[in-house]
Each structure stands twice: as structure tokens, then as C-alpha cells.
Amino acid sequence: MQVRVYTNVPAALGADFLKEKKDLVLLDVRQPEEYEAGHIPGAVLIPLGELESRIDELDKEKEYLVICRSGRRSVMACHLLNERGFDKLFNLQGGMLEWTAEVTRSQR
């Protein structure tokens, strides 16, 4: 049995959660084109496929809300982060598909 290493935050409650956790880092693990199409303001993009090689860019002392399209890649990212010593992890359950608050679109 695998132990859960993160806490799920339902997307419908995500905006309120962000207001409560002011120092939370938003980590978006989608692909750049998905991020450009719409992301939560302030989110840092590190695609899941690059996360392991870029993990040194992240601070283990901070709390992270990990985001993807549906919640699947963010769960995988949470497990990878936990294996590397991160323990303050939250998963945006339902991902951007269920996010109802503000999004920012990138200009190309």
C-alpha cells in the first residue's frame, strides 16, 4: 500500500486555499503550450518531464501546490518531490479542468 505524501485540495476550493496560504508556491507541471493557454496567476512552470533535472530550483522548506490539467501529473510530481525530500505538498485535485477562479494567458 502506497502512503499518500501530499494533501488534496479540491479545485473548487483552490482560490480560497491560496488566500489562506500566502507563501505557497504554485508549481504547474503541464507542458508550456498548456500553461500559455491559461494558468493560475503567479504559477511557476516546470513540466513534469523536466522536474527531476530542475528540482534544485525549488526550496524544500516551502509549501507547494502542484497543478496540472486533471490532477494526474500533479500526483506523480508530488511523489517525485517527496522522494527528493519535499514534505509540504498539496495537489490541486481536478486540476485546471476544474479550476474556476482567475487564469492568466501568456502572450506569444
From TrEMBL:
Q: Which GO terms describe its molecular function?
A: thiosulfate-cyanide sulfurtransferase activity
Protein name listed in UniProt? Sulfurtransferase
Q: In which organism is this protein found? A: Effusibacillus lacus
Q: Which domain of life is it from?
A: Bacteria
UniProt keywords, alphabetically: Transferase
Looking at the record, the residues that make up the Rhodanese domain are 20-108
Q: What Gene3D superfamilies is this protein classified in? A: Rhodanese-like domain
Q: Which CDD domains match?
A: RHOD (cd00158)
